Amino acid sequence: MPPTVRRSRKKKGPRPYDPDRRVVAVTGAHSFLGAELLRRLERDPRFGKLLAIDVRRPDGLERSEFHRLDLTAPNAASLCGEILSEARVDTFVHLAFLSGPTHNSTWAHELEAIGTVHVLEACSLARVRKFVMSSTTGVYGPHPLNPNFLPETAELRGLGQSRFFNDKVEAEREAQRFQEESQDAVVTVLRFAPILGPGISNYVSRFFRRPAMPVLMGFDPLLQLVHEDDAVTALELACDHDFPGAFNIVGEGVLPYTTMIARLGKLPVPIPHFVAYPLAKLLWMTQVMESPPTFLDWLRYLCVADGRKARELLGFIPRHDVRGILDDFLGLPASHASSAEDVRP
């Protein structure tokens, strides 16, 4: 694992900004969240200048400036800092994270963990006043001792040897260090429940599109989701207002895993967990399956996040419940959606 890059901080505070002509930069602009957020901000005249930063140009943007930047490059921090300083960016939204696990774990670490260090250094150099970062409730990790609802203060356990979740834990720790060293800056971390909807492609959507789904015998954990539109709304709120700290962004309600399978019309395949793990390891190593064996822990243990803080402080009220999210993913009309179980903290 490459060593964590240490940042030198300038002690100057954030530059002044005009609330009626905001300047926002978004990394991961080619991703679903990045492109959808920029499209919404383009419709708001208060956001006078928008920067789309990625290795690929996003489609369908009208007034966002595109800047090609590879966050794994050794000089990414200085290049990004120059872009932000020249544009006088006041809000930086960091969405350059993978939507699923990869066998190229070294590159993944360079992109997510070291890439986050690069953009934080750039924000420090450019005196950016607000830093917003996407994360996942997966940083808590599935665990047999987890309570029914995990608050933002819960331990970030990650997931075993999973680079996909552990790199996001490391990115969060870097953001926390940035907040401690740059106390005048506003740092907001949004921990999204698994995002699902008709437009997004990630490891969850691909898993739910399988014709058959494994069920670990003796286990049926509660699962939660957040709709893709609600996820973008949470990012929009974080851009528009100052909400320092971490927030769980979750949809309404939870459902048992087997109920989700039935709702999706998939075939459940019961399998003993002592058989499932070695089989999953073999399928992962031969690249037949895109999820490493540690992901089976999600089908075994609870990891449900408490969304009260986001409702009370961020003002985030999800429009979609868990059943409606599944129905929209299936392409069913809104009238077919049922209300979620009233299971909340």
Structural overview:
The chain is of the alpha/beta class. 34% of the residues lie in helices and 17% in strands. The protein has helices spanning 32-42, 76-87, 105-125, 163-181, 203-208, 228-240, 257-264, 273-285, 308-314, 322-330; strands at 22-27, 47-54, 64-68, 91-94, 130-136, 186-192, 195-196, 212-216, 222-223, 226-227, 245-249, 255-256, 267-271. It has a seven-stranded parallel sheet with strand order 3-2-1-4-5-6-11, with helices on both faces. The protein has a two-stranded parallel ribbon with strand order 7-10. A two-stranded parallel ribbon has the order 8-13. Strand 5, helix 4 and strand 6 form a beta-alpha-beta unit. Helix 1 packs across helix 6, helix 2 packs parallel to helix 3 and helix 3 (105-125) runs parallel beside helix 4 (163-181). The chain is globular and about 60 Å long. The chain starts with 21 loop residues before the first strand and ends in a 15-residue tail after the last helix.
SSE blueprint:
Layout: E1 22-27, H1 32-42, E2 47-54, E3 64-68, H2 76-87, E4 91-94, H3 105-125, E5 130-136, H4 163-181, E6 186-192, E7 195-196, H5 203-208, E8 212-216, E9 222-223, E10 226-227, H6 228-240, E11 245-249, E12 255-256, H7 257-264, E13 267-271, H8 273-285, H9 308-314, H10 322-330
Parallel strand pairs: 1-2, 1-4, 2-3, 4-5, 5-6, 6-11, 7-10, 8-13
Antiparallel strand pairs: 9-12
